[in-house]
Amino acid sequence: MYSCTEPTSIYMYNISSNLSKSMAKNGGVYSVHILKEGYSKAEEPGEQRACGTISLVKGTHKIIVDTGNPWDRELIVRGLASHGLCADDIDHVVCTHGHSDHVGNLNLFLNARHIVGYDVCQGDLYTDHPFSEGISLWIDDVVEVKPTPGHTHSDVSLIVHNTKDGVTVIAGDLFECEEDLKNPSIWKDNSEAPDMQESNRSQVLTVANVIVPGHGKLFHVTKTK
Q1: C-alpha dist (Å) from residue 192 to 8, 90, 188, 208
Q2: How far apart are CA 95 and CA 23, in angstroms?
Q3: What per-residue string of b and e applies to 171-188 under the rule 16 or more CB within 10 Å gives b?
């Protein structure tokens, strides 16, 4: 059983894009906001308290990444309101995988296209996408839903290619927390496919400047030559 960061106050971090629209191409200008910082803390043997990070991506599209647990409904509503939004303004919901602390409020977002792991739907209409072949789904020119299996066999990550810090990856439990870079047991103990997850972690670390993990504070990636 692993422990990452304990819960802290919402609205902790904002990553604002200041790139020109010409650099952003048809994706417009995006910013990433943490509505709730994820956490995981061991309790008694066989027990832990946990919730996944809930993120808002604002730009040409309004995107929620992971929806927390069912007790986070009012927190999400308040968080959106602080950005001048309501649930009906969200046009995409991306859940990095299907665990209950990441999908608990999908029914808030009835106007959105839902991408939950490898499932893509709007209303009761499901659309096939070849995530299992390693092919990303692009929401626009700069926002990518990339298959990153390992934690489960159908994980995805949202990659925003145009924040002021470079590439921001909202990775779900591909990365549990920054601490798992030095203590691999944190993520390996919860992995359905460790070899696959390790490969996808390496790929994300190569491209990312900032990573939003599933159960801890966002962190900047130190590039080595």
Answers
A1: 28, 31, 8, 23
A2: 27
A3: bbbbbbbbbbbeeeebbe
- Residue 53 CB partners (closer than 8 Å, separation 6+): 34, 36, 37, 38, 65, 66, 170, 212, 213, 214, 215, 216
- Which domains are seen in the chain, by residue range? 14-220 (3.60.15.10)
Residue 84, C-beta contacts closer than 8 angstroms, at least 6 positions apart: none
Query: Backbone phi, then psi, for 63, in 5-degree steps?
Result: -125, 135
Give pLDDT tens digits for 110-169.
Answer: 999 999 999 999 999 999 999 999 999 999 999 999 999 999 999 999 999 988 888 999
223 DSSP 8-state letter = P
**How many of the other CB atoms lie within 10 Å of CB of 43?**
11
pLDDT digits (tens, 9 = 90+) for 39-95: 999 888 889 899 999 999 999 999 999 999 999 999 999 999 999 999 999 999 999
How many whole angstroms separate alpha carbon 46 and alpha carbon 67?
Answer: 25
